[in-house]
Amino acid sequence: MNLYIKQKIFTWGDKFSIYDADGNEKYYVEGEVFTFGKKLHLYDLRGNELAFIEQQMFTFLPKYMIYRNGNEMAEVVKEFTFFRQEYSVNGPGWRVHGDFFDHDYEVVDGDTVIASVTREWFTLGDAYEITFGDDVDEIAALAVVLVIDACIDAQRD
Predict the structure, then answer these.
(1) Half-sphere exposure for 80 (CA within 13 Å, toward CB)
(2) Strands 112-119 and 104-109: what pairing?
(3) Which of 14, 68, 137, 138 is buried most, with the most CB atoms less than 10 Å from its CB?
(4) Using alpha carbons only, how large is the chain's radius of gyration in Å?
């Protein structure tokens, strides 16, 4: 299964549409404006919240919490490394590594690829292709990808 994230430009706050391989909108993401730290909501097309992402403030390294149905599902933490970037996903026990500046990275569980992300070039606004592994919790993996995108965005500012 492949999904495509397209960030809308000229919007107030974060807004993303997430499409399936046929170009049909499948999910959307809205960020809260005027908050301390980044807060994102992942919704289905009927407006049901599927995941909530909240940046933890006042931490040495970036840390985000992912919630589903009001319960903590995962904690994504940037690892302290000197020459490369890596993230831990506490909860499911995943790791995230790759070339984050070019949006070319993988979410892995040991040797199993949960999701791989590649940037789509020559598009208006940022666009990314996400390829999911077999039998993957799509919402959990998508929430982790949204956290990594938020971290990359924060580094650009």
Answers:
(1) 3
(2) antiparallel
(3) 14
(4) 15
* Burial state string for 38-48 with b = 16 or more CB within 10 A and e = fewer than 16: bbbbbeeeeee
The string of pLDDT tens digits covering residues 7-64 is 655 454 677 789 998 989 999 999 887 777 789 999 999 999 999 999 988 877 889 9
Q: How far apart are CA 51 and CA 97, in angstroms?
A: 22
Q: Please report the pLDDT score of residue 10 as a whole number.
A: 45
pLDDT of residue 154 exceeding 70: no
Residue 107 pLDDT grade (very low, low, confident, very high; cuts 50, 70, 90): very high
How far is 100 from 116, CA to CA, in rounded Å?
12
State the amino acid at position 148 in one-letter form. Answer: I
